[in-house]
Write a structure and sequence with these properties.
Chain lengths: 558, 290, 335
C-alpha cells in the first residue's frame, strides 16, 4: 500500500471507463448531478423586527432514543431540548456561567458554605394546576441528590451529592438546604440541565410510567400536547406562564403557539429540509455546511456550553491502557489542530485543558497534551510495543489494538474518529471504528470499564462538581476505572468538592487538570460545540443558556 | 433482490429465443456490438482495479491531506476529494476488491453450495430431493436482502460476512437451476442410453450433466454477480460491511450523502456501481443468448 | 374435478404452512447456532454492559442454558401460540413492535407494487409499438438499466429532486400521499424492471402467435391489440413474478425507509440489527416469509382459474415463463 502524492496520469483504462460511463449512464449522471447540487434558494436574512405572537415552529432532530425518564434523559443532548421547554429551573445560568434568579427569586448562603436558603417565586404552578411550592422543590432536590435506587431512579451525576445532607421546607416558599461540608457548587448546579423541576406526582411514578412523556408534568412555558416514540413531540404554549428567567427580559407566555420536534435521522435531510423551507430549525448539522448555509442567509448557532471539553476518557482497566506510557503515547499522538482544520470551522476552539474555555477556572495546560508523534513512538517503544511487518505494534504476541465508538451525541464524531484512527495508525496502533445508535451506545458504553476510550460530552455548571464523576467515591462515575488506586486523584477530587473559597479551589482545579492530563486519563480533542442549531431566517429571538440549549420561550417567527 | 430468478425463467432452455419484433434482419456478419465491447472493457478494468489497485490509483485512499478537503473533480483528483481530503477516485479503486471480489465470493458460495444441493437432489431424488426442496423453499420465502441482513448481523459486520450472507441468499436459485438441469439431462434419451450401457452415476454426471448445465449456471452466475454487487453495496450502505476507513462503494455513497454540498461524493461511487453492474449484466445477457 | 382441485388446494396450503414453520426453524438456527452464537456472545461480552441480572432473566426466558433443541422447542411452541417473544432492547413484545411498524410499510409496498405494475406495462407497451427507429431500442434497454442502479441511489436522487428541489413533499411528513408515492417509485423501480422483463418476453412471444397475426389482419388498432390480445395472456406469468416481487418489496423497504426517513418494518430491522435485537429480527423474517407464502399461495390457487378464462386460444403455446403450477416451478424456470 505504498502511495505517493502524484500528478494526474491519464491512464487508458480510465478513459475507457469514462467512455463507458458516458455511454451507459449519462442520463443517470445528469439526474444525480442535478439532484445533488441541491439547495433551494434561501430567503434573505431578515432584520428581525418586533416580536409577533402566534405561529408554529418545527424543529428537526435526529432522535429521542434515550427515552423520557427525567433522571436518565434530562442531560441528554437530544431530549434535553424538550425538557428545557417544559420545565423550569431554580436559577438561570448564562453562557458565561453567570447565575441569576429564576424560580428561586433570591438565596442566602451561610458563611461556611454549608447551608443555603432559597426564596421561591410565588404563584408558580405546574401545568396540572398544582403549586410549585417549597415542598415540591424539596422533593426535587432529594431526587437529584439521591435518586431512588429502589425504583431504579438514578441521581443526577453532577449534583454535589457527596456532601448533601438534607433539604426542608421552612414555609411554602422558603427552602433550606444543608450540606455536611462546604459546597460552593450547589447554587450554580441548580441551573444545570439535570436540575429540572418536575411535579412530585411525576417523580412518584414508576420508572415505566415515567417513560411516558405525557405524564411528565413541569412548570415550563410549554406543555406536551402529544408525542409518538420515534416520530415527534408536539408542545403548546402555556397561556398563563409568567415566570421566565429575569435576565431574558421577557415577561408572560411564549410567543409561539406550538413547537414541534420532528425526528429526522439523516443529518443531511435535516439541513436540506430547513434549506428548502420545510422546517424552521435543524438540530445538529454538519459543521462543514455552516459556511455555505450562512452565506445563503441562514443563521447557524454554535453555542459552547460550560463543562468538559470533548475528549476521551481512558479506562485504565482496558489493556494496554493500564500502562501509563501507552496512555501518554495516545495523549501526544493526536493532532488536534488537524481535527479542527478538517472537521470543524473557526467556530470551534482548541482545548487548553479538559475544561471548556468559558468556565472561569479553565486555565491553559496545552503543553501536557501537545502533539508530538516522535515522543509517542518513543513511549510505545519503551513500553515494549514493537512494530511488526504491517506497521502494527505487537507485544507478547498481542497487537496494539483499539476500538473507537463514535458517540452518537456529536455529529462530527465519525470523521473525528476517522482522523484519530489515521493519526494513531501512523504510530502503530490498529484502530477499528464501530458505529452505534443511541440505545446501543448507551447499553454498551455506560459504565463499561472494558472499553478503552469513550467520548466525553458532558456539561457542568460549577467546577466543584467535577470531582463527582472522576472517581468512584460517593457513587461517582469512576471515569478512568481507577477505583481508589490513585491517591492523588482521590485527594484532589475530595479537596475540590470540599473547598470553601473560590481562590483555593481554582488552585486545586489547576492541579487536577495538570495531573489528569499528564496521566493520560483524559485525552482532550477540542472545545465542544455539541449543539448546533441551523435556523431559518424567519426565526428570531431564540436564546441560548449556559448549557447551550436553545430556549424558544423568547422566540418568534415572521 | 433475488432478481436472478426472473430472467432465468426465460432462459433459452425452456423458450424459443425470441427476436424482438421488427428485428428480422438479414443474417448479419458476426460483429461484437459496441455496448458489449465496452462492457467487457469495464469488467476487465474493474478486475484490474481489484487486483492491482496501486497500479491504477497512486494516492493514499486512507490518509488524506486534510487541507485539500472537498475539492471538486479536477485534474489532480478525477472524482474530487472527500471530507478528510482523500482522493475519491483512489478510494473507489481501493474499494473495488471488497466491493467486487466479495460479490465473486458470494456467487462462488451460491454456485458451489447451491450447485451441490441441486445435483444431489436431482440425482438421488426421493426424500433427499424433498429435504433440499423444502430448504430451498425457505431460502426463497425470505426476501434475499432481508436474509442477507439477518445472516450478516449474526456473523458480524464485515464485508466478508456480507459476502457470505449474500451467497447464502443466492444458494436457492442455483440449487433450483442445477436440479432442473439434472432432471432434464436425466430424462434425455442419450443419458438413458448411457445408463443402459452401464455408465455409472458419476460418469453420467461428468459426461452429460455438467457440460449441459454449465452454460445456464454460468449465465446465471454472471447475472448473480451483478445482483451481488448491488446487495453488498446495499449492506455496506447500511453500515453492515467493513467500517471506515474501508471504502466499499456502498459505504462511500452512504458517507457521501452527508455532504450535499459535495455532490461528487455520491455521484462518483454511484456512477461506478451503475456502470459496473450494467456491464456485468450486459455480459450476462450475451452469455444467455449464446 | 372439484374434488381434485380440493386436494390440490389442501396440498398447497399444507406446503405453505410447512415453509413458514421451516423458515422459523431456519432463522432460529442461523441466529443461535452460527459460529459465535450471537445471542450468548452478545450477552457475555463485557463490552455490551448487560448486568448479571439482565443476563439471567434473558437466559431463563429463552432457555439459553439448555441444549439448542430444547430452546428451539420452547421458542417454536411460543411461536405457534402467536408469541413472538420480547425485544431484548426495549422489553416490548415483538408483536406490538411489528404491529406499530407494519401499516406504514404495507402502505409503502402497496404503492410500490402499483407503481411497478404501471411502469412495467408502460415500458412493455413501448417495446411493442414504438417504431424501432424511434426509441424502441432504448425502451427495451430500460429494464436492465433500471436493474443496475442501487435502490439507495434511486432513493437519494428522488428525495433530493422531488423533496428538496421541487418541493413536492416535505421530509418532515414522510407519510404524506406524495412522499409515499415518491418512496413507492423508488422502491418500485427495480421490481418494475423485473416485471417488465418477463412481460416483454411474453409479449414478444405472443406476438408471433397465429391468432395475433389473424387479429392484426382484421385491422385491430395497436391499443386494442395490446390490451385484448397481448396483455391478457402475458398477464399470467406476470402474476407469478408479482407474487415473488412482494417479498422483494419487503426486503427493499429496509433501504427505502431509511433514505426517505419513514418509520416502518425496514427501520425496525435496521434498529434491531444495530442493537442485536435478535427476537425482533427473527419475527420480521418469519413475517416476510408468511407474506411471501400467502401471496404465492393465492397466486398459485388463482392461476388455474385465470388460465381458463384468459387464454384466448388453445393454440397459444406455452407462454415464455412457464405456466407454473407452483411458484417453485416458475422459479426453477427450466424445470
Amino acid at each position: 500500500m505504498s502511495r505517493t502524492t502524484t500528478r494526474p496520469r491519464p491512464a487508458a483504462p480510465v478513459r475507457a471507463l469514462a467512455r463507458a460511463a458516458s455511454v451507459l449512464s449519462t442520463g443517470l449522471a445528469v439526474a444525480l448531478l442535478a439532484a445533488c447540487t441541491g439547495g433551494a434558494g434561501a430567503t434573505s436574512p431578515s432584520d428581525g423586527g418586533s416580536p409577533r405572537a402566534g405561529g408554529d415552529l418545527t424543529v428537526l432532530i435526529s432522535n429521542f432514543d434515550a427515552g423520557w425518564v427525567p433522571s436518565k434523559s434530562s442531560i441528554s443532548s437530544y431530549e434535553g431540548n424538550v425538557w428545557g421547554e417544559i420545565t423550569d429551573k431554580l436559577v438561570y445560568v448564562d453562557p458565561k456561567g453567570a447565575v441569576s434568579p429564576w424560580i428561586a427569586e433570591s438565596w442566602d448562603q451561610s458563611k461556611d458554605a454549608r447551608t443555603y436558603t432559597l426564596h421561591l417565586k410565588q404563584g408558580v404552578t405546574f401545568s396540572d394546576g398544582t403549586p410549585l411550592d417549597a415542598q415540591a422543590v424539596v422533593t426535587n432536590i432529594d431526587t437529584w441528590a439521591k435518586g431512588d435506587p429502589a425504583r431504579g431512579i438514578t441521581r443526577i451525576a453532577l449534583f454535589p451529592s457527596a456532601s448533601y445532607d438534607h433539604a426542608k421546607a421552612v414555609d411554602d416558599h422558603t427552602v433550606e438546604v444543608v450540606f455536611t461540608k462546604p459546597t460552593l457548587g450547589f447554587i450554580p448546579t441548580l441551573g444545570y440541565h439535570g436540575s429540572i423541576l418536575v411535579s412530585p406526582k411525576s417523580i412518584a411514578l414508576s420508572l415505566d410510567e415515567q417513560g411516558d412523556l405525557s405524564k411528565e408534568i413541569g412548570s415550563g412555558p410549554f406543555v406536551v400536547t402529544s408525542w409518538k416514540a420515534g416520530d415527534s413531540v408536539v408542545l403548546a404554549k402555556r397561556p398563563d406562564y409568567d415566570w421566565g428567567p429575569k435576565v431574558l427580559d421577557h415577561d408572560g407566555p411564549a410567543y409561539l403557539d406550538t413547537v414541534t420536534y420532528k425526528i429526522v435521522k439523516e443529518d443531511s435531510l435535516r439541513s436540506s429540509a430547513v434549506q428548502s423551507g420545510q422546517a424552521d430549525v435543524a438540530f445538529n448539522v454538519s459543521p462543514q455546511e455552516i459556511e455555505t448555509l450562512r452565506g445563503q442567509g441562514f443563521d447557524v448557532e454554535t453555542p459552547r456550553y460550560l463543562g468538559f471539553v470533548h475528549g476521551f476518557k481512558v479506562s485504565t482497566k482496558a489493556a494496554p491502557f493500564d500502562d501509563l506510557r501507552v496512555r501518554q503515547a495516545l495523549q501526544h499522538g493526536i493532532d488536534r489542530q488537524q481535527i479542527i482544520d478538517t472537521v470543524y470551522t473557526s467556530d470551534w476552539q482548541a482545548a487548553t485543558g479538559f475544561i471548556q474555555g468559558t468556565v472561569p477556572e479553565a486555565g491553559d495546560f496545552s503543553s501536557t497534551f501537545a502533539y508530538d508523534p516522535e515522543q509517542s513512538k518513543k513511549l510505545l517503544d519503551e513500553a515494549g510495543w514493537v512494530a511488526g511487518a504491517d506497521g502494527v505494534r505487537v507485544k507478547d504476541g498481542k497487537a496494539l489494538e483499539l476500538t473507537l465508538y463514535p458517540t452518537p451525541y456529536i455529529i462530527t464524531s465519525e470523521p473525528i474518529d476517522e482522523l484519530v484512527s489515521q493519526q494513531l495508525t501512523k504510530l502503530g496502533f490498529k484502530v477499528t471504528i464501530q458505529r452505534l445508535d443511541v440505545p446501543s451506545y448507551l447499553d454498551r458504553l455506560t459504565g463499561n470499564q472494558s472499553i478503552a476510550l469513550a467520548d466525553v460530552t458532558r456539561s457542568f455548571v460549577d467546577v466543584g462538581t467535577v470531582a463527582g464523576v472522576l472517581t468512584d467515591s460517593n457513587g461517582g462515575e469512576d471515569w478512568f476505572a481507577v477505583g481508589h488506586s490513585d491517591a492523588t486523584l482521590d485527594r484532589l477530587s475530595a479537596d475540590i468538592s470540599d473547598a470553601s473559597d473560590a481562590a483555593s479551589r481554582k488552585k486545586l482545579v489547576d492541579e487536577l487538570q495538570e495531573y489528569v492530563l499528564d496521566q493520560g486519563y483524559f485525552v482532550p480533542v477540542t472545545q465542544i460545540v455539541q449543539r448546533i442549531y441551523l435556523q431559518s431566517p424567519k426565526v428570531h429571538g431564540a436564546s441560548f443558556n449556559g448549557l447551550a440549549y436553545a430556549n424558544y420561550a423568547t422566540a418568534w417567527v415572521d | 433482490m433475488t432478481t436472478t430468478v426472473l430472467p432465468e425463467a426465460h432462459s433459452p432452455h425452456d423458450a424459443p429465443n425470441v427476436a424482438p419484433p421488427g428485428a428480422r434482419r438479414p443474417a448479419r456478419v458476426r460483429r461484437v456490438p459496441v455496448s458489449l465491447a465496452l462492457s467487457v472493457a469495464v469488467v476487465v478494468l474493474v478486475v484490474a482495479w481489484a487486483l492491482l489497485p496501486d497500479v491504477f490509483a497512486h494516492q493514499d485512499p486512507v490518509t488524506g491531506v486534510p487541507a485539500q478537503k472537498f475539492l471538486p473533480p479536477g485534474a489532480a483528483h478525477w472524482f474530487g476529494t472527500d471530507h478528510l481530503g482523500r482522493d475519491v477516485y483512489s478510494r473507489i479503486v481501493h474499494g473495488t476488491a471488497s466491493s467486487v471480489l466479495s460479490a465473486l465470493v458470494a456467487v462462488g458460495i451460491g454456485v458451489v453450495v447451491g450447485g451441490v444441493l441441486g445435483l444431489v437432489a436431482g440425482f438421488v431424488g426421493g426424500w433427499v430431493d424433498a429435504v433440499v426442496g423444502r430448504t430451498v423453499d425457505v431460502l426463497l420465502a425470505v426476501p434475499g436482502f432481508l436474509l442477507a441482513v439477518v445472516v450478516v448481523s449474526a456473523l458480524g459486520f464485515q464485508t466478508i460476512n456480507a459476502a457470505v450472507a449474500t451467497g447464502v441468499s443466492a444458494v436457492a436459485v442455483f440449487a433450483r437451476v442445477m436440479r432442473a438441469e439434472v432432471l432434464k439431462v436425466r430424462r434425455a434419451t442419450f443419458v438413458e442410453a448411457s445408463t443402459l450401457a452401464g455408465g455409472s452415476s458419476l460418469h453420467v454426471l461428468v459426461r452429460h450433466v455438467l457440460p449441459n448445465a454449465y452454460r445456464s449456471v454460468l449465465a446465471l452466475s454472471v447475472l448473480q454477480l451483478g445482483v451481488s454487487i448491488l446487495v453488498i453495496a446495499g449492506l455496506a450502505f447500511l453500515g453492515y460491511g467493513d467500517p471506515p476507513p474501508a471504502s466499499d462503494w456502498g459505504l462511500l455513497v452512504a458517507s457521501g450523502k452527508n455532504y450535499p454540498l459535495a455532490p461528487w461524493l455520491v455521484l462518483a461511487p454511484a456512477a461506478v456501481i451503475v456502470v459496473v453492474v450494467l456491464s456485468v449484466n450486459r455480459v450476462s445477457r450475451r452469455l444467455r443468448q449464446a | 374435478m372439484s374434488g381434485r382441485h380440493g386436494v390440490f388446494v389442501a396440498r398447497r396450503v399444507g406446503q405453505a404452512a410447512l415453509v413458514v414453520l421451516l423458515t422459523y426453524v431456519f432463522t432460529f438456527l442461523v441466529i443461535s447456532v452460527l459460529p459465535g452464537d450471537p445471542v450468548t456472545s452478545m450477552l457475555r461480552d463485557p463490552e455490551n454492559g448487560f448486568s448479571d441480572q439482565d443476563v439471567q432473566q434473558i437466559v431463563a426466558y429463552y432457555h439459553l442454558d439448555q441444549p439448542v433443541l430444547v430452546q428451539l422447542a420452547t421458542s417454536l411452541g411460543r411461536f405457534l401460540t402467536g408469541d413472538l417473544g420480547v425485544s431484548l432492547r426495549t422489553q416490548v413484545p415483538v408483536t406490538q413492535l411489528l404491529g406499530d411498524a407494519l401499516p406504514s410499510t404495507l402502505e409503502l409496498t402497496a404503492t410500490a407494487l402499483g407503481v411497478a405494475l404501471l411502469l412495467a406495462v408502460v415500458v412493455a407497451y413501448g417495446t411493442q409499438f414504438l417504431p424501432p427507429r424511434l426509441g424502441q431500442g432504448i425502451v427495451r434497454a430500460v429494464p436492465s438499466a433500471a436493474l443496475s442502479v442501487p435502490s439507495f441511489v434511486i432513493g437519494i436522487v428522488l428525495v433530493r429532486t422531488f423533496g428538496f428541489q421541487l418541493g413536492w413533499f416535505s421530509i418532515t411528513d414522510p407519510d404524506s400521499l406524495t412522499a409515499t408515492l415518491v418512496a413507492g417509485v423508488a422502491l418500485g423501480i427495480p421490481v418494475s424492471a423485473q416485471i417488465a422483463e418477463v412481460l416483454v418476453a411474453n409479449l414478444d412471444h405472443e406476438r408471433t402467435q397465429d391468432y395475433v397475426t389473424l387479429a392484426r389482419s382484421r385491422g385491430l388498432t395497436s391499443r386494442e391489440l395490446f390490451r385484448r390480445h397481448l396483455l391478457k395472456p402475458s398477464a399470467l406469468p406476470v402474476l407469478t413474478v408479482v407474487a415473488i416481487a412482494v417479498g422483494e418489496l419487503l426486503g427493499g423497504s429496509l433501504i427505502t425507509e431509511s433514505v426517505f426517513g419513514r418509520q416502518g418494518v425496514g427501520t425496525l430491522v435496521e434498529t434491531s440489527v444495530t442493537g442485536q435485537d435478535l427476537p425482533v429480527l427473527q419475527a420480521v423474517v418469519v413475517l416476510a416469509a408468511i407474506v411471501f407464502v400467502v401471496v404465492n399461495l393465492a397466486a398459485d390457487l388463482l392461476y388455474p382459474l385465470l388460465d381458463a378464462r384468459l387464454r384466448p386460444s388453445a393454440r397459444s403455446a406455452a407462454p415464455v415463463t412457464a405456466p407454473a403450477r407452483t411458484l417453485s416451478d416458475a422459479v426453477a424456470g427450466a424445470a
